[in-house]
């Protein structure tokens, strides 16, 4: 590495999952533009692993075309599920093979972080609910990774601590139980007469919309409960600040990843088949080079 390369800052690669909802994809791209404007000396690009354009490989190509050889990749995800643990590292390994001489430092997911918990609390307050008389139902995406699901419960507990809510319960919109109706049933059984349904998502999209539809359907048959709907986190200033914090951690090698309950490392009941499983990247429909390594597997999961 040349002395000039050592002094140049790492480029920032923001990695999103992707969505079929145009609003959610544009919110991601808007955040990328905002991040680029905050620190003009750092090359910034963003890409998706599936569903939305641009694909991750195009974002990496944009950065390398601008002369970047050291890239810090930050997963724009709230929990470390299969995408953050396997799909993205495998995709970065593929990009490293495609572009010899390019190195990647990989950051950790975003939550639960106090700054984002403050935003969630504001979302609850925005629907006019008095905390002491309100139970919050925090609804996560849901995963087949038990460690990822436990992170949503952790966020719910941290949201409850010291904020004065009557309670904070947890549900999931896909892949994991309890689902939204079951979560609302639990809140009601515990005595809640006002419930704020709070989607634990960064941006609008198909799944947050599903959360609202399911909650509205439940409320229609439970008239004795006041059900209110809060908004997602959104591309707020706190989110941009947190991305830069994760970027700094990656660049400085200060990655405090929690692997104590990772299904890829620890034989958890019902998930023993995941231990040591090799990971391979998603194949984005706009990634026209993917056939060249279609049969290559990514490295085994190592965080």
From TrEMBL:
The protein's UniProt keywords, in alphabetical order, are: Lyase, Metal-binding
Domain of life, source organism: Bacteria
Does the record bear Metal-binding in its keywords? yes
Chain spans, region Disordered: 275-303
**Keyword hit for Metal-binding:** yes
* Compositionally skewed regions (Basic residues) per UniProt: 293-303
Q: Which GO terms describe its molecular function?
A: lyase activity; metal ion binding
InterPro entries, per the entry: CbiX-like, Sirohydro_Cobaltochel/CbiX
Compositionally skewed regions (Basic and acidic residues) per UniProt: 283-292
Task: Report what the protein is called.
Answer: Sirohydrochlorin chelatase
């Amino acid at each position: 590495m040349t002395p000039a390369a050592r002094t140049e800052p790492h480029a920032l690669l923001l990695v999103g999952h992707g969505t079929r909802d145009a609003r959610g994809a544009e919110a991601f791209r808007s955040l990328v533009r905002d991040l680029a404007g905050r620190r003009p000396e750092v090359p910034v690009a963003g890409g998706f692993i599936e569903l939305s354009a641009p694909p991750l490989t195009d974002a990496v190509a944009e950065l390398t075309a601008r002369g970047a050889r050291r890239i810090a990749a930050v997963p724009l995800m709230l929990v470390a599920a299969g995408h953050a643990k396997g799909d993205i590292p495998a995709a970065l390994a593929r990009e490293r093979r495609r572009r010899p001489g390019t190195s990647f430092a990989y950051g950790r997911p975003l939550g639960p972080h106090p700054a984002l918990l403050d935003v969630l609390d504001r979302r609850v307050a925005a629907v006019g609910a008095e905390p002491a008389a309100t139970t919050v139902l925090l609804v996560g995406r849901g995963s087949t990774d038990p460690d990822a699901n436990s992170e949503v419960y952790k966020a719910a507990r941290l949201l409850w601590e010291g904020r004065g809510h009557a309670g904070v319960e947890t549900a999931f919109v896909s892949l994991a139980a309890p689902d939204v109706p079951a979560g609302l049933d639990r809140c009601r059984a515990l005595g809640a007469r006002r419930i704020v349904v709070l989607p634990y998502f960064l941006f609008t999209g198909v799944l947050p919309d599903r959360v609202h539809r399911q909650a509205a359907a439940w409320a229609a048959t439970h008239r004795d409960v006041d059900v209110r709907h809060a908004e997602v986190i959104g591309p707020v200033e706190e989110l941009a600040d947190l991305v830069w914090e994760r970027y700094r951690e990656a660049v400085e090698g200060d990655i405090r990843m929690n692997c104590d309950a990772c299904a890829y490392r620890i034989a958890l009941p019902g998930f023993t088949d995941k231990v040591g499983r090799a990971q391979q990247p998603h194949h984005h429909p706009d990634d026209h080079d993917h056939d060249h390594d279609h049969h290559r597997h990514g490295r085994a999961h190592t965080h």
